[in-house]
Amino acid sequence: MKPRVVILGGGFAGLWSARTLARRARAGQLDVTLINPRPTSDFHPLLPDVVGGRVRRASATYDLRQAEQRWALTFRQAEATDVDADRRVVKTTDGDVPFDHVIVATGAQTNVRGRGDLRAHALTLDSARNAESIIRTATRDPAAAFVIAGGGPTGVELATNLRLRCWPHRPRIVLAEFLSRLCSLLPESHSRYVLRNVRRMDTDVRLETTVEAVDGSTVVLCDGERIAGARLIWAAGVAPGAVARKLPRGDRNGRAATDEYLQAGEGIWAAGDAAGFVRPGESRPIRMSVQHAIGGGVAAARNVLGAIGGRDLQPFRPLDLGYIVPMANGLSCGTALGVPVFGAPATALHYVMSGFRSQAPGKTAGVLTDALSSYLDARRFNSRPPSAHDASYNNP
């Protein structure tokens, strides 16, 4: 019987695992099954751009039925709930799936941090469907205010793209961050740049502020301010999916502990945001990022092939090329190969890298074409007179 490899998750790590296994699957040497709760793989770095209208949904999603044909795998649309290591089956909402090797690449979802009281009221941005829900909300009630909880990269990107989407109506947008600066994991110079730019885009930034409650259509901040007619969008952190959290934990967020080969157990591997991989000599897992998800997906799949073939496993050696925080007016920031990059060059890197990381034929051109066509839209923010929220643009 052919070895059975099951991949949990259709994100970057899952798709690059499938791509790495494809040659053996086409040759009839492997039985590969990909399990994902949605019929599409959603390109998360572009979802804020979908909200802003800079990128079409079609350019930010990939039909997993195409992956099924392209990489000679079996796609099952189901939610994986657990990995039974003793019985060698993955438990799903569509029954048990047997495996010889399983790659847990379930990514991460919005984490409400114990605030279950807010979950029913908050919009999130975990999928292209979520992006369309935000768009419908903004379109249906142009006068509604928005409160975005979380001033990390996702909150910042969402705030600027929501401003782009709602520009004609100019609704109030509040970005509430618990810490004393936006994007706190970035160098302080980048945080200051982000703050100036977000304020320039007519966004009310509230540092050291949290959302206390949602009272009907009113969002209540921790300082007691009540923002009437507001919708809450939660972007205050992420956590791994349920399957990864049931494996031995590698960090406080519940990422699965792995060895240097990305093994999380006998025949169980973890990659991407689900894996709490720690570099030799370091104490904290590598950051969640697209590049680490891609590299981890490839490394896990190669080691699965090595284990099947009786060869030595190869240690995972992630390479961090940098990061970009893209903002909808084209004034983005980040680092590339350790070099700080700001403004239009950073924005160009965001779209070029997003385009070339796409798995589907034709998606690269679609992303780049969408980005180019939206360039003039972004210029409106950089040529307009300062607004009331720009008072501290040069002095954050």
Question: Could you walk me through the main structural features you see in this protein, from its secondary elements to its overall organization?
Answer:
- It contains twelve helices and 24 strands.
- The longest helix has 20 residues, at 290-309.
- The model is unreliable at 383-396 (pLDDT under 50).
- The chain has two domains: 4-37 and 78-110 and 238-309, FAD/NAD(P)-binding domain, CATH 3.50.50; 116-236 and 322-390, FAD/NAD(P)-binding domain (3-Layer(bba) Sandwich), CATH 3.50.50.
- With 396 residues, the protein is of the alpha/beta class.
- A hairpin with a 2-residue loop joins β20 and β21.
- The protein has helices at residues 12-26, 47-52, 64-70, 116-119, 128-140, 153-165, 188-200, 242-246, 290-309, 344-356, 363-373, 375-383; strands at 4-8, 31-36, 40-42, 61-63, 74-77, 80-84, 89-92, 95-98, 101-104, 108-110, 122-123, 145-149, 173-177, 204-207, 211-215, 218-221, 226-228, 230-234, 238-240, 263-265, 268-270, 322-325, 332-336, 339-343.
- The radius of gyration is 21 Å and the shape is globular.
What's the gist of this structure?
This protein has 396 residues and is of the alpha/beta class. It has helices at residues 12-26, 47-52, 64-70, 116-119, 128-140, 153-165, 188-200, 242-246, 290-309, 344-356, 363-373, 375-383, and strands at residues 4-8, 31-36, 40-42, 61-63, 74-77, 80-84, 89-92, 95-98, 101-104, 108-110, 122-123, 145-149, 173-177, 204-207, 211-215, 218-221, 226-228, 230-234, 238-240, 263-265, 268-270, 322-325, 332-336, 339-343.
